[in-house]
Amino acid sequence: MAGGVWGRGRVAPVGGLTLTALAEGIQGIQGQPLGSPSEDPQPDLAAEPGCAGATHTAGSVPCSPPSAQEPAPEGPSQATQSSWEDGALADLALYTAGCMEEAGYAGTQETALTLSSALEAQGERLENQVQALVCGLLSQVPSLAEGRPRRAALRVLSALALDHARDVVCALLPCSLPPDRPALTLPLAHTSRTAAELWRSLSRNQRVNGQVLVQLLWALKGAAGLQLDALAATHALGEMLTVSGCVGATRGFYPHLLLVLVTQLHKLAQGPRTPDSPKVWGPSHRGPPHSHASCAVEALKALLTGDGSRMVVTCMEQAGGWRRLVGAHTHLEGVLLLASAMVAHADHHLRGLFADLLPRLRSPDYAQRLTAMAFFTGLLQSRPTARLLREEAILERLRAWQGDPEPTVRWLGLLGLGHLALNRGKVRHVGTLLPALLGALGEGDTRLVGAALGALRRLLLRPRAPVRLLSSELRPRLPPLLDDARDSVRASAVGLLGTLVRRGRGGLRLGLRGPLRKLVLQSLVPLLLRLHDSSRDAAESSEWTLARCDQALRWGLLEEMVTVAHYDSPEALSRVCHRLVQQYPSCVPTFLSQTQGYLRSPQGPLRRAAAVLIGFLAHHTSPSCVSQDLLDSLMQDLGQLQSDPEPAVVSAAHVSAQQVALLARTLEPPHTSRLLSLHLLARLARLGTLTHQGHSASPARPLPVYTDSPFQRRSLADRWGCLGAS
Q: Residue limits of the Maestro/Maestro-like HEAT-repeats domain (predicted)?
């Protein structure tokens, strides 16, 4: 418009708020009460047809002033062809403001109808005209004072959205990028803040907020590949959902909205990283405000909090779920945590989520399908939800996932089978569960092995668990996993053995459980040596499992095992070896052979622990239990440790070699083994382990004495965080 009323040139398009502001200006100049239309409009208030639009993001449609019919207080009169000429805009502005001030919301509706009629009479697309009005609101809201004028203008926006929600959303979205993005200029940042205020005003209006949310949801789904459009829609959703009471408008599409936001996070995690993307997203770090992922997370938090599911948000924060959700390699773990939290604290949405997930499980979109699979797997923890489908249908689906070439899909299938194993009514499906779980123990993917071990442990925790069957099936499969190179796999395998012993302890005490007893004896040496594992989880799991074995087999060695675990006590280990040699003399060669394998371990503490264990086993072993071949092999490996880089390992190997030499001297080999015996004694002499007594006598073997271990010990004080002041 021409200057005059505001003392400045026309810098913004004529929109809904421009009409309000213009009416107040006319009132001030003409001295007329607000609401009485001017009978003699001022010519210098006319608007030019080509007024410049406000600055918006790229792709926004320039705002142009619409033409309208001139409303009259006594009755309508036909507008001429040049309806935007002198006086027409002023009269329309006064009528608009009068309606808003005199009739409240009803007047605002009448205003919106008047504006719509005027815009439709122009003969152009209404979408473009609504956009012009929204542009006017964006440009003029910052100049309006708080109170009645501002509220009246925002009511015009709500009234327009009541009938034209899609047009209003399309007009606001180009200006709705987060205001603190580095790429935004200062004017665009101001416009973005104004747009956020308009979104919140729409959210407070219960008659339109549901329609606007639906349009934003469709805008987010339709923005595939358009990162800025998706970011604007996500930010707008977050602004609306933060308003108290707005989440109630999502009734009917709440599960759909939640899954769209979570899927959006998956796409962001898998997509290319921008320079402003956070490299690390800690549990207490919300990330940069302009981060697309952080906008989606905040929208998701607002959706859950507004629905009364604050505990879900808290559980996710405590478990690091939000950090996992935005991680490229941990997103599905975050989805599983979210599903578990909702099972525990938001079960009123589980049926809707489950129903919305089923068609997504066959989606051609990779991110949508995997997110749905993870949610489906997590929801199987809820028994009422799992009963929505036939058990056979769920098992068939999970078995199909086991044949997928993608390891992630097989991993989710194993997790689902583990959740089914928790349900007491699935006894008849053990025959279906076991082959899949046992077969996964040989997978190379750590997640698959870990999921299978966890599912087997859950299966053992169920009433009437098949202990004997599992003992037989795990005997050839579990021992290799106790020495697996992956820390998490070792810890889980040891824990599974402990759970198996705990469930079968009744039969072990009665001398039954033959397969389980053999499995325990086969795993005894690895358990003792893994007390010194570099992985704290594996060491603590070994201690727990040994305690279960001691309780089930009644060794009476619990105190000694705990002492070895936390203080590396040679005396306690000597008592353990003495009891085991006495109780299982036929297993001594196996114990020594297994321990010999650990002499080549890459972990220094394990090499030293193996050398010490060999020394005590040799000291307490009867000569009739071992062969010279075994002793020769032991001496060869102990001799190689004389050049070990760890001095503690060298010292322990020297002491243990003396014990093996003393044990060899007590043997009376047959004449056929005379050459081998002489060869062994010659090697002992070179190592300096023979005394001046030679090998003709058989003196009592002294107890080996080892120096203190220089490696870190796991004391009870350290375990409970009660370290004293240094």
A: 394-660
What b-and-e string marks burial along 290-299, b requiring 16 or more CB atoms within 10 Å of the CB? Answer: bbbbbbbbbb
- Torsion angle of alpha carbons 288, 292, 295, 297, nearest 10°? -100
In terms of Cα–Cα distance, which of 346, 404, 400 is closest to 375?
346
User: Strand locations in 88-230, DSSP E?
Assistant: none
Question: Which has more pLDDT, 33 or 577?
Answer: 577
- Measured CA to CA, the distance from residue 200 to residue 321 in angstroms comes to 28
What is the DSSP-derived secondary structure letter of residue 700? P
Q: Cβ(613)–Cβ(655) under 8 Å?
A: no
Is it the case that residue 674 has pLDDT exceeding 50? no
Residue 59 has pLDDT above 50, yes or no: no
* CA neighbor of 209 nearest in space, from 157, 255, 173, 261: 157
Alpha-carbon span 586 to 592, nearest angstrom = 11
H helices within 598-724, ranges in order? 604-620, 628-640, 647-665, 674-687, 716-719
State the pLDDT at residue 318.
94
User: Comparing C-alpha atoms, which of 597, 633, 618, 610 is closest to residue 665?
Assistant: 618
Record the tokens describing residue 568, joined without a space.
């590396």
Q: Are 23 and 100 in contact (CB under 8 A)?
A: no
Measuring CA to CA, which residue among 636, 620, 544 is closest to residue 576? Answer: 620
- How many angstroms separate the Cα of 515 from the Cα of each of 462, 500, 508, 574? 20, 11, 10, 28
> CA-CA distance, 447 to 11, in Å (whole number)?
60
CA distance 245 to 665: 87
- Following DSSP, what letter does each residue of 594-609 receive, concatenated? HHHHGGG-SSHHHHHH
- pLDDT for res 35: 40
Confidence of residue 96 (pLDDT cuts 50, 70, 90): low
Q: What is the pLDDT of residues 587-639, one digit of tens each?
A: 999 999 999 999 999 999 999 999 999 999 999 998 889 999 999 999 999 99
What does the DSSP assignment read for 119-137? HHHTTS-HHHHHHHHHHHH
Task: Report the candidate in 137, 117, 130 with the shortest Cα–Cα distance to residue 70.
Answer: 117
Residues 414-423, mean pLDDT to the nearest whole number = 81
Lowest-pLDDT range, 274-288, 309-323, 361-375, 689-703?
A: 274-288
pLDDT of residue 101 exceeding 50, the answer is: no
- What's the pLDDT score for residue 125? 53
Give the Cα separation of 279 and 712 in Å (integer): 33
Q: Dihedral angle at the C-alpha atoms of 393, 394, 397, 398, nearest 10 degrees?
A: -150
Residue 272: its pLDDT value, please? 58
- Residues 180-197 as b or e (16 or more Cβ within 10 Å = b): ebeebeeebebbbebbbb
- On average, the pLDDT of the chain sits at 76
Q: Which tokens belong to 124?
A: 């152009």
Closest CA to 42 of 27, 63, 20: 27
Q: How far is CA 641 from the centre of its chain?
A: 45
The C-alpha angle 92, 94, 100, rounded to 5 degrees, equals 105
Predicted confidence at residue 65, as pLDDT, reads 32
Length of the chain: 726
Structure token digits, residue 60: 């926004």
Residues 343-364: what's their mean pLDDT? 90
Say how far residue 465 (Cα) sits from the centre of its chain: 31
Q: What 8-state DSSP symbol labels residue 271?
A: S
Closest C-alpha to 286, from 438, 180, 423: 180
pLDDT at 183: 53
pLDDT in tens, 453-478: 998 998 888 888 888 889 999 999 99
Take residue 32 and report the two structure tokens written for it: 């007329």
